[in-house]
Write a structure and sequence with these properties.
Length: 125
């Protein structure tokens, strides 16, 4: 299915990660893609690009971490990994949905944000 013209990733997204492709994904963060090509979340941010139905974003820190995805109407799905040597495992899969989708309770979002754990950059131990 083609992505409708004008579909953009700009806005807030709930991100789920599965480092090492274990089959045990975790809620990682809410991130926001800004119209100026930057993105942010509680642990930092970086730069993003989108061409039609694909997007890619990097992290200002840690260097070398890249997420890529296919853009769907209400979701993003893709792979992530360290272009340079990174934590073990250094690759995985991820997806995101718009806030409001019935996937994660607000209490879980607060718990992750308050825990200090950053599952956007490393796996859950």
């Amino acid at each position: 299915m083609a992505i409708p013209m004008g579909s953009s990733i700009v806005g807030a997204w709930r991100v789920f990660t599965d480092w090492g492709v274990t089959g045990n994904p975790v809620f990682a963060a809410v991130l926001t893609f800004n119209a100026n090509g930057s993105w942010t979340y509680f642990g930092g941010g970086g730069q993003w690009i989108q061409v039609e139905g694909m997007c890619c974003f990097n992290f200002s820190s840690p260097a070398g971490l890249i997420y890529t995805a296919n853009v769907h109407r209400d979701a993003l799905s893709g792979i992530m990994g360290y272009a340079l040597a990174g934590p073990d495992p250094g690759v995985g899969v991820w997806w995101a949905t718009h806030p409001g989708a019935p996937t994660v309770a607000a209490a879980e979002e607060r718990a992750v944000a308050q825990s200090g754990q950053d599952y956007m950059i490393k796996h859950k131990k």
